[in-house]
Automatic annotation (TrEMBL):
Organism: Rhizobium soli
PANTHER family: DIHYDROFOLATE REDUCTASE
Official protein name in the record: Dihydrofolate reductase
Recorded family membership: Belongs to the dihydrofolate reductase family.
InterPro entries registered for this protein in UniProt: DHFR, DHFR-like_dom_sf, DHFR_CS, DHFR_dom
Length: 175
């Protein structure tokens, strides 16, 4: 069986995930959980998302970047011409390293395509409406994904908003 693909995303009540190439909030509590959940797993990201990380991969996670730029060369990063190629390569890395899943980290264009391919969604629902966001997450179709876990997380000292962390699993397809 293929290594599962999981989307990791923080999304506002009105589906905003970004503004001006960054996240429109600070969620230290969520970032700690995100790091713990993704360390050692191969990550698939778009080039703009890599840029939002300062142009380098997040430590401790192999990265495959979806880009049209064949000349992109960043230490610790592999490139792929399509999302499907990136997922395939990330699955190979996961199989070789024993990682239990591949993570998709965005951005908006990558999420829009990946939501049809993902087995699981790890969603931090940010308890806010963001009026000036410019990057959106697609709606989660309840006929495709079932919420299997949800916890409320009050805003910590270094968090802009309270959140709800939810895990969604792709429903079994009818036989």
């Amino acid at each position: 069986m293929a290594v599962p693909v999981a989307i990791f995303v923080a999304v506002s009540r009105n589906n905003v995930i970004g503004r001006d190439g960054d996240m429109p909030w600070r969620l230290s509590t969520d970032l700690k959980r995100f790091k713990a959940m993704t360390l050692g797993k191969p990550m698939v990201v778009g080039r703009k998302t890599l840029d939002s990380f300062g142009g380098k991969p997040l430590p401790g996670r192999p990265h495959v970047v979806v880009t049209r730029n064949r000349d992109l060369s960043v230490e610790g990063v592999e490139t792929a011409a399509s999302l499907e190629q990136a997922i395939s390569r990330a699955r190979e890395i996961a199989a070789a390293t024993g990682a239990e899943e591949v993570g998709i980290l965005g951005g908006g264009e990558i999420y829009a395509k990946a939501i049809d391919l993902a087995d699981r969604l790890y969603v931090t629902h940010v308890e806010a409406d963001i009026a000036d966001g410019d990057t959106m997450f697609p709606a989660i179709d309840p006929t495709v994904y079932e919420k299997i876990e949800e916890i409320f997380v009050p805003a910590g000292e270094r968090d802009s908003f309270a959140t709800r962390f939810a895990v969604y699993s792709r429903r079994s397809m009818p036989k």
